[in-house]
Specification:
222 residues; alpha/beta; five-stranded parallel sheet; 9 helices; 8 strands; 52% helix; binds cytidine-5'-monophosphate; CMP kinase activity; nucleotide-binding; dCMP kinase activity
Length: 222
């Protein structure tokens, strides 16, 4: 199953709920891009240095330095070279870094194999931006989950505040809009709905109702 959509649409929570209900494995591809961004920051490589970040990503994959484990609370626990970076990758700075590094074709190519390997056996929910268009265009069920920018920013802002981070709603909204523009406007694997993906707009839906609607669509499709 492929679930794509912009930042803050509720993908992570919903993908986790669907994976649990179906007893599927959850693959959070955004966490992969975030991990590469964190590694680049630590190495002092600018997010915009495509070739260097690409080489870094290839190296991480070749050394099996990225690992993702199921976690009851977080959904996915992420390790970078054995270190738990699950919290370190969830900052606004790394979100923005992930959006920049993911625009480089070398970085995308390095992570594509990892994503295809994770999904090839089936029984997997992959969430990201290009799963239905590039990674698994033949996925059995494809969703494009979205919501208005204001709604997405409000959800994101509530999350950040709950984690004790101090940022204004206006700043969060500006970040969401900037990330949308970058993700939709890039040349390689831009964020867009696959023609055959089911559109779900969660603007005025609760998480429960969104999951219910998607679960019904899965049942109908299988
Ligand atoms: O979903 P999440 O907010 O964790 O993703 C972080 C960033 O990683 C996105 O803004 C996007 O630029 C990038 N990404 C991507 N392709 C994916 C998943 C994430 O380009 N399949």
């Amino acid at each position: 199953m492929a679930i794509d959509g912009p930042a803050g649409a509720g993908k992570s929570t919903i993908a986790r709920r669907l994976a649990d209900a179906l007893d599927f494995v959850l693959v959070d591809t955004g966490a992969m891009y975030r991990s590469v961004a964190l590694a680049a920051m630590r190495e002092g490589i600018a997010f915009t240095e495509g070739e260097r970040v690409g080489a870094l990503a290839r190296g991480l994959v070749a050394r099996h330095a990225l690992s993702f484990e199921r976690d009851q609370v977080l959904g996915v626990r992420v390790k970078l070279g054995g270190e738990d970076v699950s919290d370190a990758i969830r900052t606004p700075e790394i979100a923005q870094g992930a959006s920049l590094v993911s625009a480089h074709p070398d970085v995308r190519a390095a992570l594509l194999d990892l994503q295809r390997q994770a999904g090839e056996g089936g029984g997997v929910v992959l969430e990201g931006r290009d799963i239905g268009t590039v990674v698994f265009p033949e996925a059995e069920v494809k969703f494009f989950l979205t919501a208005s920018p204001e709604t997405r920013a409000k959800r994101r802002h509530d999350e950040l505040v709950a984690k004790g981070q101090t940022t204004s709603f206006e700043q969060t909204l500006a970040d969401v809009k900037q990330r949308d523009a970058q993700d939709e406007g890039r040349a390689h694997a831009p964020l867009r709905k696959a023609d055959t993906a089911i559109l779900v707009d969660s603007t005025s839906l609760s998480i429960d109702d969104t999951v219910k609607q998607m679960f019904e669509a899965v049942k109908k499709a299988s």
